[in-house]
From TrEMBL:
InterPro entries to which the protein is assigned, alphabetical: Aa-tRNA-synt_II, aa-tRNA-synth_II, aa-tRNA-synth_II/BPL/LPL, Asn-tRNA-ligase, Asp/Asn-tRNA-synth_IIb, NA-bd_OB-fold, NA-bd_OB_tRNA
Keyword check for Cell membrane: no
EC numbers, comma separated: 6.1.1.22
Record GO terms (molecular function): asparagine-tRNA ligase activity; ATP binding; catalytic activity, acting on a protein; nucleic acid binding; transferase activity
Family designation: Belongs to the class-II aminoacyl-tRNA synthetase family.
Name of the protein this chain belongs to: Asparagine--tRNA ligase
Pfam families associated with the record: tRNA-synt_2, tRNA_anti-codon
Chemical reaction(s) catalysed: tRNA(Asn) + L-asparagine + ATP = L-asparaginyl-tRNA(Asn) + AMP + diphosphate + H(+)
Main enzyme class: ligase
Length: 430
C-alpha cells in the first residue's frame, strides 16, 4: 500500500510503500539510517544488514542526498523521535539519482542559500516555515468564512493608487499608465457596499528601496472591509482574527514550532483583548524611554515599535495617528481633528507592525477635499467617490501582512524565509 509520511501513524505494524527523497543518511557496518522526506513530513528509515539482501544493504549505503526512491517496509513506533514513528525498510527502488547536491549539511552563506532558494525549500527549517505559513492561510479562510465574509479578488493592475504613487511599480497598459497594486482596499470598499463583509487575499507590491528584515517588494495581504462598522468594532474583529490564527498554529504546527525552537510560551499569552495605546501616549512613553529623536507628527520606526511592544507581552494597538502621516481615506477622530480613527497592531518580540487599519471616510465632501489635498486626480477615483453618493455608510477595514505574521509566529528573524520565492531589493531570482 502506498502512503505518505504524514499517514504513518495510521499504519503501525503494517508494510507500506512511500515515495520519498533522501534528506540525509548515516551508516555503520551493520545498519543504515535514512532520513526520508516526502513533502508531508520527515521520517527515519532503518535498514538492518541481517534483515535485507546484500544488494539492498549496499544500495542503502550508497544512496546520495536528494536521490528519489520508493521505500517499502513496516511502520513502527519510535519514542526517541519527535515524529514518533519510523520505517523498518525491506526494499528500495531508486527513481532518480542525485549527484553533487549543492546544499549540504554544512553551513552556507545567506546569499548562496537565496541563490538556491528552489532547493533550500527542501530543508527541514524551510519546510517548517512554509507549513506554518500554510496553516495561517487555512485558519484565515476558516475565520472569515465562519464570520460571514465573502472573498473578493481585487485587480492587480490598477489605474490609481490608494496611498499615492511614490512606492508603486509603473507599467504600460496598452496606451494607458498602470500600476501593480499596493493594496486592494479601495476595490474591497466597493465590494463591501454590495456584500457587507468582504475580504481579499493576494499579492501586493511596494517599490520601496528598503533592505530591512521586515520588508519585501512583493508580499501577500489579507484585507477585510466591513460595512456598517465603526473603528472600535473593527479592532475587535482584528484581535479576534489574530487570536484565531495564533491558536490554530499552536494547535496544528507543534512539530514545526518545535523544530524551529520557537518559544511557544510567548505565543500562548496572545489572548484578547489586546492593549491599546494612543499615538499621543506612545510619544510620551518613548520620550520617557530616552527616544529624544521622535516628535509628535513623526511616524514610528522599528526601534520605536519594538520599545512599545516590549512593554507588553502580547500584540498592542497604537491608535489615532496624526492625519498628516496617514493616507487620504481615513476618517477624522471626532475628539481631535488633527488625528484619524486608525490603528497599527504591533507584534511582540520586535516583529513590528503586522496590521494597519482604519475607519474610512464616509462623507463625500470630506473625501473630495482629502483627494484634492493629496494632489490626486479626482477622475481616477470617481468610482471610489461614487460609493459616497449612493447610500454611504460608516465602514472600516484593515490589512494584515502575511509574511511578517509568519515571521512572528515561526520565530524566524528575516521575512525572506517566510515567502517561497521572496522578492527583495536586489533579488529577482530564482
Amino acid at each position: 500500500m502506498n502512503i505518505t509520511i504524514k499517514q504513518a501513524k495510521d499504519y503501525v505494524n503494517q508494510e507500506v510503500t512511500i515515495g520519498a527523497w533522501i534528506a540525509n543518511k548515516r551508516s555503520s557496518g551493520k545498519i543504515a539510517f535514512l532520513q526520508l522526506r516526502d513533502g508531508t513530513g520527515f521520517m527515519q528509515g532503518v535498514v538492518v544488514k541481517q534483515e535485507v539482501s546484500e544488494e539492498i544493504f549496499q544500495l542503502a549505503k550508497s544512496l546520495t542526498q536528494e536521490t528519489s526512491l520508493f521505500v517499502t517496509g513496516t511502520i513502527t513506533e519510535d519514542d526517541r523521535s519527535k515524529f514518533g514513528y519510523e520505517m523498518q525498510i525491506s526494499g528500495i527502488e531508486v527513481i532518480s539519482e542525485s549527484h553533487d547536491y549543492p546544499i549540504t549539511p554544512k553551513n552556507h552563506g545567506t546569499e548562496f542559500l537565496m541563490d538556491h532558494r528552489h532547493l533550500w525549500l527542501r530543508s527541514k527549517r524551510q519546510h517548517a516555515v512554509m507549513k506554518i505559513r500554510n496553516e495561517i492561510i487555512r485558519a484565515t479562510y476558516e475565520f472569515f468564512n465562519d464570520n460571514g465574509f465573502t472573498k473578493i479578488d481585487p485587480p492587480i493592475l490598477t489605474g490609481s493608487a490608494p496611498e499615492g504613487t511614490s512606492e508603486l511599480f509603473h507599467t504600460k497598459y496598452f496606451d494607458e499608465d498602470a500600476f501593480l497594486s499596493q493594496s486592494g482596499q479601495l476595490y474591497l470598499e466597493a465590494a463591501a457596499m454590495a456584500h457587507g463583509r468582504v475580504f481579499s487575499f493576494g499579492p501586493t507590491f511596494r517599490a520601496e528601496k528598503s533592505k530591512t528584515r521586515r520588508h519585501l517588494i512583493e508580499f501577500w495581504m489579507i484585507e477585510p472591509e466591513m460595512a456598517f462598522m465603526k473603528h472600535d468594532q473593527s479592532l475587535e474583529v482584528q484581535e479576534n482574527y489574530v487570536h484565531h490564527i495564533v491558536k490554530s498554529v499552536l494547535e496544528n504546527c507543534k512539530l514545526e514550532l518545535d523544530l524551529l525552537e520557537r518559544d511557544t510560551s510567548k505565543l500562548e499569552k496572545v489572548a484578547t483583548p489586546f492593549p491599546r495605546i494612543s499615538y499621543d501616549d506612545a510619544i510620551e512613553f518613548l520620550h520617557k524611554e530616552g527616544f529624544d529623536d521622535i516628535e509628535w507628527g513623526d511616524d514610528f520606526g522599528s526601534p520605536h515599535e519594538t520599545a512599545i511592544a516590549n512593554h507588553y507581552d502580547k500584540p498592542v494597538f497604537i491608535v489615532n495617528y496624526p492625519t498628516k502621516i496617514k493616507p487620504f481615506y481615513m476618517e477624522p477622530n471626532p475628539e481631535n481633528p488633527d488625528t484619524v480613527l486608525c490603528a497599527d497592531l504591533i507584534a511582540p518580540e520586535g516583529y513590528g507592525e503586522i496590521i494597519g487599519g482604519s475607519e474610512r471616510i464616509s462623507d463625500l465632501d470630506l473625501l473630495n477635499k482629502r483627494i484634492a489635498e493629496h494632489g490626486l486626480d479626482p477622475d481616477a477615483y470617481s468610482y471610489y467617490t461614487d460609493l459616497r453618493k449612493y447610500g454611504s455608510v460608516p465602514h472600516s477595514g484593515f490589512g494584515l501582512g502575511l509574511e511578517r505574521t509568519v515571521a512572528w509566529l515561526s520565530g524566524v528573524e528575516h521575512v525572506r524565509e517566510t515567502a517561497p520565492f521572496p522578492r527583495l531589493l536586489n533579488r529577482l531570482y530564482p
